[in-house]
C-alpha cells in the first residue's frame, strides 16, 4: 500500500529542503519506500518599483490576461499579457506600443503687443500670455526653462517691418538653447521698395532637452531701420512632445 502526503511550508528560511525524516513502520517486517516529490510554489513576490515586464505583473499577483502598462527604458509601454502561461513560457508577452504619459503638463503660447522691437542678440520678451501651463515660459525674460527631460516642439511666427525708400533691408531671428547653440533660423528681406513693407518670418524646431535647459528667441541681425512688429502679430509657442519618463520616476 502506498500513500501520498502533502504539506504546506510557509517558512522560506528553511529552503531548500533536501531530505525528510520518516518514522518507523508499524511492523518490523513491513517495508516502506519514501520519495520526496517536486515542490509546487504559489503566492506572490513583492515587486520593488514600477513593473517593467509581464513577469513583474505576474509576481505582483495579476492573473487576468489583457493589456497592461509597464515602464520601458524611457517611455511607458503597452503590452498584452497572457497569464495562462508561466514566466519562462514563450508568448507570455506581446509588445503593443508606447503610452503617451506625461508626469507634468507643459505648453505655452505668448505674443507681443508692443509695436516695435529692434534689439539684437538678446532674448525677445513677450507681454501677452495666452497659455502657460506649467509656468515654464517667463514672458519678461523671454526664456523657456524645460521642467522635464524629453523632446519639445517650438514654433515662432513674427512680422518684420521695413520702412520705405531703401534698396535692401533684412531681419533674421534664431532659436537658441542655453544661449550658445543655434537650432533654427528664419529670414525676411525686401529689395528696392519705396513704401513701408511687411514680411512674415517663421520657424519650427523639435529639440531634445534636459530638465533645466533654456530656450529663447533673438534677432541675430537686421538692417538699420528694420523692426520686429508687435500688435499681436508675433507669436511664440511650445509644448512637451515626449517625456523621458524614466528620469521623472527614477526607475533607472
Automatic annotation (TrEMBL):
It comes from the Eukaryota. InterPro entries: C1q_dom, Cerebellin_Synaptic_Org, Tumour_necrosis_fac-like_dom. SUPFAM superfamilies: TNF-like. Residues 101-247 form the C1q domain. Keywords: Secreted, Signal. Its main location: secreted. It is found in: Secreted. Gene3D superfamilies: 2.60.120.40. This is C1q domain-containing protein. It comes from Daphnia magna. The lineage of its organism: Eukaryota, Metazoa, Ecdysozoa, Arthropoda, Crustacea.
Amino acid at each position: 500500500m502506498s500513500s501520498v502526503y502533502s504539506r504546506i511550508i510557509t517558512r522560506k528560511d528553511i529552503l531548500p529542503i533536501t531530505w525528510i525524516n520518516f518514522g518507523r513502520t508499524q511492523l518490523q517486517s513491513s517495508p516502506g519506500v519514501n520519495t520526496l516529490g517536486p515542490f509546487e510554489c504559489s503566492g506572490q513576490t513583492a515587486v520593488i518599483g514600477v513593473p517593467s515586464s509581464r513577469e513583474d505583473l505576474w509576481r505582483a499577483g495579476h492573473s487576468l490576461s489583457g493589456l497592461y502598462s509597464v515602464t520601458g527604458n524611457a517611455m511607458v509601454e503597452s503590452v498584452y499579457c497572457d497569464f495562462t502561461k508561466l514566466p519562462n513560457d514563450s508568448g507570455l508577452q506581446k509588445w503593443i506600443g508606447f503610452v503617451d504619459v506625461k508626469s507634468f503638463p507643459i505648453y505655452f503660447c505668448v505674443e507681443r503687443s508692443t509695436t516695435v522691437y529692434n534689439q539684437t542678440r538678446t532674448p525677445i520678451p513677450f507681454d501677452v500670455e495666452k497659455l502657460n501651463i506649467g509656468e515654464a515660459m517667463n514672458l519678461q525674460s523671454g526664456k523657456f526653462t524645460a521642467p522635464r527631460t524629453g523632446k519639445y516642439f517650438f514654433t515662432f511666427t513674427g512680422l518684420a517691418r521695413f520702412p520705405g525708400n531703401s534698396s535692401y533691408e533684412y531681419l533674421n531671428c534664431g532659436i537658441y538653447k542655453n544661449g550658445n547653440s543655434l537650432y533654427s533660423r528664419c529670414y525676411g528681406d525686401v529689395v528696392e521698395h519705396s513704401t513701408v513693407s511687411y514680411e512674415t518670418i517663421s520657424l519650427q524646431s523639435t529639440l531634445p532637452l534636459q530638465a533645466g535647459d533654456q530656450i529663447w528667441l533673438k534677432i541675430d541681425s537686421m538692417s538699420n531701420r528694420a523692426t520686429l512688429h508687435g500688435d499681436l502679430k508675433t507669436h511664440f509657442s511650445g509644448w512637451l512632445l515626449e517625456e523621458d519618463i524614466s528620469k521623472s520616476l527614477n526607475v533607472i
